[in-house]
Design brief:
Blueprint: H1 10-31, H2 33-41, H3 44-61, H4 79-93, H5 103-132
């Protein structure tokens, strides 16, 4: 039997603990002398019974405002996890030099990359200077 507690209606979920717990305590008290002594002589039955009834009675008169959590956004990764993910992405984009490339071709390609990176740096430093002014 695969009974999921969350599939039950809200009222039944709220009232299930007292509807199960109070009769169970009464049965224990009727079957065992020691249980009867602790439940009734020490007032544990009434204490536990009232504790079981507080939430359902309160929910009946004052329903809780918290709704279903279905629309909640997923938790955000930490800053270090985001950094690791960005590093993995950069490494995935990086491609090693082909084996057929000569040293002169490689030098030319690296110089082009250097020029592109230098231009990006100039743009960024230019934007920083504008923000400082």
């Amino acid at each position: 039997m695969n009974l999921n507690f969350k599939d039950l209606p809200k009222k039944l979920r709220v009232w299930a603990p007292p509807l199960i717990g109070i009769p169970a305590m009464l049965l224990l008290g009727s079957w065992f002398e020691v249980a009867r002594y602790f439940l009734f002589a020490h007032h544990l039955f009434w204490i536990v019974g009232i504790m079981l009834l507080i939430n359902p009675v309160a929910e009946s008169f004052w329903p809780s405002s918290r709704g279903e959590k279905r629309g909640r956004p997923p938790p955000q990764p930490s800053a270090s996890a985001r950094r690791r993910a960005e590093t993995r992405k950069r490494l995935a984009k990086w491609k090693p030099a082909p084996l057929s490339e000569t040293s002169a071709e490689r030098l030319a390609r690296l110089q082009e990359e250097k020029v592109a990176v230098d231009q990006k740096i100039e743009k960024l430093t230019g934007k920083e200077k504008e923000h400082v002014k």
